[in-house]
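The records we work with from here on pair a chain with its fold. The integers have meaning only within a learned vocabulary of local backbone shapes. A complete example follows; check for yourself that the lines match position by position.

:::
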Amino acid sequence: MPGANKTLLAGMGNPLSGDDGFGPHVLEALRQALPDLPAGVSAVEAGTDLLNHIESFAGYDRVVLIDAVLDPDGKLGAPGRVALLDEESFASWPETSEGVHQMSPLLGVRLFRILHPEARTRILLLGLFVDRLSHSPLYLTSARIDEALRALQSLL
């Protein structure tokens, strides 16, 4: 995306907990594909607590949150779908996180906007849509990680 000088890639989730490990697994694939990230790009494993990272968002032109998205009723699409969404697309979703995160990406973005209304940071969500949580991967496959990796590389 032209004009974005500083980008933060935040991989959310627990890599030992099935599909919830989507964010860290995608970041690991990116590190293998691009050992030296482009200038201005930072990658951080946010784990299950986005709250520890939202204060830094204002220092970036763009933030990409990478996470599994729990959608038990399939309202957002078929389970296993990988999608890159801009903030306008997910800001209106109801906050119904049943996941293991202390703060969901949606709630984290809402809090960031309240704390930093002047921030011009563009926030995107690279999500793996799942219909349930499991300790074993149900939808987290190498093909879906590769699809997410291609989406990230198109941004860089």
Observations:
- The longest strand covers residues 62-70.
- Residues 142-155 form the longest helix (14 residues).
- Residues 7-155 form a domain with the Rossmann fold fold (CATH 3.40.50.1450).
- Strands lie at 7-12, 41-47, 62-70, 82-86, 122-130.
